[in-house]
Amino acid sequence: MTLIDLGELTELTDPPAQRRRPRPGGRRVAVVVVALLALLTLAGGTPPAGRIHAIVPAALGSDLFIAADQIFTVSPSPGVTDGSQELLAYPRPDRRTVAPQRLTPLWRVPVPLGNRVYRVQPVADAGLLVAMARQDTGTSETVRLDAHTGQERWRVPGIAILEMPDRALLRTFSDSAPNVLRMIDLATARELWSMTLSAASVDHWQRDDGTLDSIVVATVDGEVQVIDPMTGTVRHRLPPPADHSSSYQQAWVTGDLVTVVRNSNTITALTVDDLAQRWQVTVPTATYVTGCGPLLCAGLAGGGLQVLDPATGAVRWGSEEILDIVLVDDRNVLAVARNTNEIVTMALGTGATLTEHGSWNMVARYEYAPQVFAVRPVTEVGLVLARLDPTGAPARRLDVLPDAGGDCQSRYDLVGCRLHDGGYGIWQLPD
Fold this sequence. Notes:
Blueprint: H1 26-43, E1 53-56, E2 63-66, E3 70-76, E4 85-91, E5 101-102, E6 107-111, E7 116-123, E8 127-134, E9 139-146, E10 152-157, E11 159-163, E12 167-171, E13 179-185, E14 191-197, E15 199-206, E16 212-219, E17 224-227, E18 234-238, E19 249-254, E20 257-262, E21 266-271, E22 277-282, E23 286-292, E24 295-300, E25 305-308, E26 315-319, E27 322-328, E28 332-337, E29 342-347, E30 353-359, E31 361-362, E32 372-378, E33 382-388, E34 396-402, E35 404-411, E36 414-419, E37 424-428
Parallel strand pairs: 1-5
Antiparallel strand pairs: 1-37, 2-3, 3-4, 4-6, 7-8, 8-9, 9-10, 11-12, 12-13, 13-14, 15-16, 16-17, 17-18, 19-20, 20-21, 21-22, 23-24, 24-25, 25-26, 27-28, 28-29, 29-30, 31-32, 32-33, 33-34, 35-36, 36-37
């Protein structure tokens, strides 16, 4: 287990003859000692001489993105006040040090004025996809950069929502112009196919080997379409229901099911192969449907969920006390309580609470993992990092992140958090 080096601690050889005023920082030292002792107890040994950790200098208002071999920030441009920003690339720390390394940029490129960067994703052949959008104009674009130099390779309209080894799927998000769903060649941005998109949602279905099988589109006029990802042709089309009276509709793919939420209260389950209806149920204020192990979870507006049988749509149980689902296995669900922000483990089949883990703040993640990371503050020290899973076992405390204040994310075996004194701290996750 990786531990922090808190310096050398010594004891007084003789007790003081009289009570003295506490030295500045004395309370901090005491808390640090307690944290250190707790970690030593967990680890059962002496902390190593160093760890892989670093500081990324970033002003307030910056955003952090962690990639495989690099770390990126989108930060206000220095010396200007017009809202200009730049994308900076930093090397991933890879050596152990006692004090955190202060990273310096490898390169920097300007971000078009008024744009917000939503994704920074490494792709094949030392590529980097940067997706950004302008809310005031409803325009968006994805840029491919050289990860080594920041040099631009191509720029196309739309946000990249799915990347494959040789292709990328993009869509535009405009309220004032026709939207487009487009598949492009990842190396050159050559368009492979495109279609006008009158859609409230786009999802996809991948086979067990990871191959993209289908793209599912729910249109604002009530249609559901299954798109061939190789050609862009419509394989199957389901017309809107006769009583369709609202433009609100979204669809999600879970296994071989397409679940469609219409008008926030009707959930219809269709087979992804031919859009044949399996069942339909009414769930008041439903906003989304997602897979929950062998079952389905329907999220409700304002919090709460109902757990459904995927074969029949029957409601197994429901709760208004759950804000969000964190992670699910075949038997249990890890969830966040609605009003207290506490994390609980519940039995997936019945909704019974099995374990109360207390209040933790989730570390943002980007890909599925069988466990999640969470943090909680230690006064005048930083954050305690823990790992949770749906088994019901207590949170496993892993590390202390000195001077970390929050806004944490984890990706590629790193965790990054905003520091109290500015910038971001980066730590290698313990094994």
